[in-house]
Write a structure and sequence with these properties.
The complex is a heterodimer of chains A (286) and B (644). Chain A has 286 residues and is an all-alpha fold. Helix content of chain A is 75%, strand content 1%. Chain A has helices at residues 3-34, 44-54, 63-83, 88-109, 112-143, 148-152, 158-161, 163-176, 204-229, 234-254, 260-285, and one strand at 58-59. Chain A is globular. In chain B, α16 (373-404) packs antiparallel against α21 (502-520). The chains are: A mainly alpha (286), B mainly alpha (644).
């Protein structure tokens, strides 16, 4: 572990949310263009959050703020591990803990909407968790290490060896980014059946915390995508990661929402068909 | 040597002393005293054998001879006691006395064989044994203390159950004594005797209430464990009469390696699978729920099921790099996957805990079948963390049941506000069961690593890793769902003012602290209990010498997470943010807080919402049936394959 990785890791803590916010802004612009609208300015997510901080915060229970801080804390830890070049599997575990804290926050308010939202969120976690774990396992089999620093220094062919894993990961990425057809825990629109699902009872600075954590999450997921291509070098890997990241926006705008049972079945099926098969075939590819 | 005889002998004497108490007050005092002495003695034993290599103890021929006779007579006596209990069996349980006779016959024929192997070292201590002693002594002792008050309440609630508390405590202490016997015996025949005593104790304790359901479940536990017992006896008969390996010593058996010892090891493994409630034997542990909670806590955490996995992990080097080991891992894997999924459907807190125990033991069995240093490392730490956290969870559920009058998870809604102390302890227990940065997760991490470095056949480790990945997902779902209920703001605040009874509070608080400390100090546990053991096996050449190492920066980050989990609530408690509190959103005008709202047409509607139970999605009966079938086939293939 040398100085640049420390810089990267602390850079992530400071600039991670900014990158994530820009990604979110771009996402909204792209979505608007696909729907033939002008769309908000690129920095709109940041304006939104700044405004949220000025609003009164209403809570059902004081503890919900604590759980949301837990959500943010473990999200930052998860990204910190990656940018430090640390252990990818541990980073997945931290990401899981973070997700559970968000569910706890919503559960704690105990309104029926938050309740359904967090139950569905847990269901989604159950759906994507196996695939998310297979990704580090795949890297381990290729690079013989869970460590991000070793994966980055791996063979340029790893993305081809792990193409099934990449497909599986892109599938669960749609869930992770709460995109249609898998946005069943938090509908984007206030008038739909869930109101706002998991975030129904968060307001003001609490909601701002959720948004900031999501920015971190965007950056982390982009970093995961980058990892697949990382040995090809920054100039190739970063654009590729961006293209794939924004392909999710296209999916979002072209699909209707699925029910939870179909989501669970579909993601486990994809995990087995692409992820597990890829890993099983891996010894033949080297 | 003296410490061993003290632990076994004192537990037994304590049982008699408690049973002979003249009145309730004396009995409670004696239970408290004996349990404390046992716990203290275990800690002292651990301190004296800290991080040391194994020690084997020889006995003088005279003592050995006398003890041999005592164990033989004890074995026959045990069989007679079991046959005496069998007077209450129903027609379809005919196989139970048959199994008793069969196993006793096998044992006696081995003992009175013309040439019997010499036993040089009947007892031993190594660092894994020390860890087990701590688990049995400290966790088991705390459970006994918890039982004092719990059993009084239990009999106050259940008027129809005959009060047999004297015998009850005798059985608890006998259980602890025989557990100590199991972990210290190197003499396989003596080990087998203690093994069967735990079977007897569990049968009696499960059937304690005397209702028809309890008695039937008791007999089911007895029957299934006797199948394991017969298999164990067959292993001993093989070691006495069979070709090849000719020994009655556990360490010799392990040292013989897979080429020589695989057949007896597989037979003993079947006994271990039955005792640790793996599919297809798991129904006995689910039936054991009818027993009072301290019994469940004892069976699930520190005794019984841990005896099963203890022996499997002991035999683990024999399974290293064999197909039998892979099959054993797969049996554990099937169990882990099926029971994790089925646990999602359960509303009854004790059933959730029961399924999760079986699942966790499945994970330990998976590791035991792999047999590398890393896998054993994971298995031993899993045993530790599971024992502590599960005992805490069971006792907490028991106490909560007496406080709120229900063990339904839905009724635990808002426990954080209604009974903050209970909820905090349960949350620590749940976190300890599955979440980073606690111990379970660490073991999962190492298991993944160990599985991926397996080399029996193509795709073997990957199969196990996939099972682990898919099985962990439902685990996350049902634990988080439960936590969600605990942290929910209660809609109607039922009063909860009865204090937690003192004895129960002592046990619960201690276990909570132990869970936390065990997680914080796991690198120490690793150095003191696990590394000396795997190093020793490596030095004997039984397993490849690869240090299972967690990189230092991972440990640093895990400590950071643990600190965060501790400091954030603290900071919050010191400086709570001042936000305006309102009732939750109900898409109407709230009437009384979040409990009801005025909906369309001005009607007042009461709010109800429940957790997700996927009973339509996960078909419990079908899953369990296929799981049992699959695991049963795997066992047959394992035993049959080795025998051929």
């Amino acid at each position: 572990m040398n100085t640049p990785t420390w810089l990267l890791a602390f850079g992530f803590i400071l600039l991670g949310p900014l990158v994530g916010a820009l990604l979110a802004g771009l996402d909204r612009r792209l979505t608007a263009r696909m729907q033939s609208r002008q769309g908000p300015p690129l920095l709109q997510p940041i304006y939104d959050v700044l405004k949220l901080f000025e609003k009164d915060t209403l809570v059902v229970t004081g503890l919900q703020t604590l759980y949301l801080w837990g959500f943010l804390f473990f999200m930052v830890v998860s990204g910190f591990i990656i940018f430090l070049g640390g252990d990818l599997l541990l980073s997945v575990f931290a990401l899981t803990v973070s997700g559970i804290f968000l569910c706890l926050a919503a559960y704690s308010t105990n309104s029926p909407y938050s309740n359904v939202g967090s139950s569905r969120e847990l269901m989604l976690m159950m759906a994507y968790e196996p695939m998310l774990i297979l990704v580090p396992l795949g890297f381990y089999l290729v690079a013989d290490s869970f460590r991000v620093s070793d994966i980055v220094a791996g063979s340029p062919w790893q993305v081809l060896q792990l193409s099934g894993i990449l497909i599986g990961f892109l599938f669960v990425l749609t869930i992770k980014l709460r995109k249609s057809p898998f946005d069943l825990s938090s509908s984007h629109h206030g008038h739909q059946e869930l109101v706002k699902g998991i975030t129904t009872d968060f307001s003001g600075s609490d909601l701002a915390l959720v948004e900031i954590a999501h920015w971190y999450e965007n950056t982390i997921l982009l970093a995961w995508l980058y990892l697949f291509f990382a040995p090809l070098g920054l100039a190739v890997a970063l654009p590729l990661a961006f293209v794939l990241f924004f392909a999710e926006v296209l999916v979002d705008n072209t699909h209707a929402r699925l029910k939870w049972s179909s989501t669970l079945k579909a993601s486990w099926l994809v995990t087995i068909v692409f992820g597990v098969t890829n890993l099983m075939l891996l010894p033949l590819m080297t | 040597m003296y410490s061993i005889s003290f632990l076994i002998g004192f537990s037994l004497l304590a049982g008699f002393a408690v049973a002979a108490s003249p009145d309730v007050e004396t009995r409670s005092r004696r239970v408290r005293l004996s349990a404390s002495v046992i716990a203290l003695a275990s800690v002292l034993l651990a301190l004296f054998h800290l991080a040391s290599g194994p020690e084997f103890f020889a006995l003088s021929p005279g003592v050995l001879h006398v003890l041999d006779w005592m164990f033989t007579i004890g074995g026959v006596g045990l069989a007679l006691v079991l046959l005496y209990f069998c007077r209450r069996i129903v027609a379809r349980e005919w196989y139970i006395p048959v199994l008793v006779v069969l196993q006793t016959g096998l044992m006696l024929s081995a003992e009175f064989a013309e040439v019997t192997p010499e036993v040089a070292h009947p007892f031993y201590i190594d660092s894994f044994t020390v860890l087990m002693t701590l688990i049995v002594g400290v966790v088991g002792g705390l459970i006994c203390i918890h039982a004092i008050r719990y059993m009084q309440d239990y009999h106050a609630h259940e008027k129809t159950v005959p009060n047999r508390q004297a015998a009850f405590y005798f059985m608890l202490f006998l259980f602890l004594a025989s557990m100590f016997g199991i972990v210290f015996s190197n003499h396989l025949l003596w080990l087998f005797f203690f093994w069967e005593v735990t079977t007897l104790c569990s049968f009696w304790l499960i059937a304690y209430s005397g209702t028809d359901e309890a008695v039937r479940n008791g007999f089911r536990a007895l029957g299934l464990n006797l199948i394991g017992g017969v298999s164990f006896a067959a292993a001993i008969a093989w070691l006495t009469f069979g070709p090849g390996l000719h020994t009655w010593e556990l360490d010799q058996l392990i040292a013989a390696g897979s080429a020589m010892a695989l057949i007896p090891a597989v037979l003993i493994a079947v006994a271990g699978l039955a005792k640790s409630a793996q599919l297809p034997f798991s129904s006995w542990l689910l039936g054991a729920m009818v027993a009072p909670t301290p019994v469940s806590a004892l069976l699930h955490s520190s005794t019984m099921v841990k005896a099963g996995v203890f022996l499997l992990v002991k035999l683990s080097p024999v399974f290293y790099d064999t197909y039998a080991g892979l099959l054993l891992s797969l049996i554990g894997g099937v169990t882990f996957l099926v029971t994790s999924l089925v646990a999602v459907n359960q509303r009854n807190a004790k059933l959730v805990l029961a399924y999760s125990t079986i699942a966790n033991l499945g994970l330990i069995v998976m590791c035991a079948g792999v047999g590398t240093a890393g896998a054993m490392w994971a298995a031993i730490l899993l045993i530790l963390f599971h024992a502590v956290a599960k005992a805490l969870m069971f006792l907490a559920v028991g106490t909560t049941e007496h406080l709120i009058g229900s063990r339904d998870i839905e009724d635990m809604e808002g426990l954080v506000y209604r009974r903050p102390a209970m909820a905090a302890m349960m949350l620590v227990g749940i976190l300890g069961m599955f979440l980073a940065p606690f111990g379970m997760l660490l073991s999962k991490y190492t298991s993944f690593q160990a599985f991926l470095s397996m080399d029996v056949m193509l795709g073997d480790g990957l199969m196990l890793a996939t099972i682990l990945a898919f099985g962990s997902a439902p685990t996350l779902f049902f634990w988080s769902k439960w936590m969600g209920k605990l942290v929910a703001m209660p809609r109607r605040l039922p009063p909860g003012t009865d204090p937690i009874p003192r004895d129960e509070a002592i046990a619960l608080v201690s276990l909570t602290l132990i869970t936390y400390v065990a997680c914080a100090l796991f690198p120490l546990a690793d150095k003191v209990f696990v590394i000396p053991y795997t190093d020793y096996l490596g030095a004997l050449g039984l397993i490849p010498v690869v240090a299972a190492s967690i990189p230092w920066d991972n440990i640093a980050i895990m400590s950071l997470m643990l600190a965060g989990l501790f400091l954030m609530p603290l900071a919050f408690w010191l400086r709570p943010p001042r936000h305006a509190e309102v009732s939750g959103y109900l898409s109407g005008a709230n009437v009384s807080g979040s409990a009801s709202y005025r909906g369309a047409m001005g009607v007042e509607r009461v709010v109800e919402s429940r957790g997700y139970y996927l009973s339509g999605f996960i078909r419990e009966d079908i899953m369990m049936r296929y799981g049992m079938l699959g695991a049963g086939v795997l066992i047959v293939v394992m035993v049959g394959g080795v025998a051929l």
